[in-house]
Specification:
Blueprint: E1 7-10, E2 13-17, E3 20-22, E4 32-35, E5 41-45, E6 54-56, E7 70-76, E8 86-89, E9 92-102, E10 106-111, E11 114-119, E12 122-124, E13 128-133, E14 148-153, E15 156-158, E16 163-167, E17 173-176, E18 179-181, E19 188-190
Parallel strand pairs: 1-4, 2-5, 3-6, 4-7, 5-7, 6-8, 7-9, 8-10, 9-11, 9-12, 10-13, 11-14, 12-15, 13-16, 14-17, 15-18, 16-19
């Protein structure tokens, strides 16, 4: 678990690690990861497993995630039979930019979240590229509401087995200037 409130700089290279969680107990202690380039700063999952590879927050947290957690890097969750590659709970007013998410059951999984921009991204080689849904938080949790005003722009949702994007129990998903192809039987699924 990482909870020290500093940005983690990911130099050029491939770094192999076990699944980990980024959890903050104060807004000042929130952590983000900054790479040099999404094709040259790579974090890879060490071994197969059903747990998520990288998790920001938790379903019982009492804070929103408010930092810009990921920039200029690649996160590879391995086989699409593994758990989700990146999971983020209640990300608010943040931007994820120039990140390649690949592998895992879902390449990027958001629970809740408000006013989030994901730009210049790649979501590939998972069962589902991007998934945003409501979750039921515990008493005293930060949010647990619907994903609201999520924007995907200038990116790729490609070569995912089921869907490029899945959005359910949400209030607004905008997809602009994105390449969505090679995803199962349909590129997008939404509901509720």
């Amino acid at each position: 678990m990482i909870a020290n409130g500093r940005k983690v700089i990911i130099n050029e290279g491939s770094f192999v690690t076990s699944p980990f969680q980024v959890f903050a107990t104060t807004y000042a202690s929130q952590v983000g990861f900054i790479g040099m380039d999404k094709n040259r700063s790579i974090i890879k999952r060490l071994a197969n497993g059903s747990t998520p590879f990288v998790t920001f927050g938790s379903p019982t947290q009492t804070l929103f995630c408010v930092s810009n957690p990921l920039t200029n890097l690649s996160i590879n969750g391995g086989a699409n039979t593994n758990g989700d590659t990146v999971v983020i709970y209640d990300l608010v007013r943040s931007t994820i930019s120039d990140v390649k998410f690949s592998g895992g059951t879902t390449a990027l999984r958001m629970y809740g979240g408000i006013s989030v921009r994901i730009k210049d991204f790649t979501l590939e080689s998972a069962k589902v590229g991007f998934k945003a849904t409501k979750y039921a938080s515990q008493v005293g949790g930060a949010g647990g509401g619907w994903p609201n005003l999520i924007t995907l722009s200038g990116g790729e949702l490609v070569d995912n087995i089921q869907w490029g994007a899945y959005f359910d129990d949400g209030r607004m998903l905008r997809i602009r200037d994105c390449d969505i192809e090679g995803n199962g039987s349909s590129g997008f699924s939404g509901g509720g």
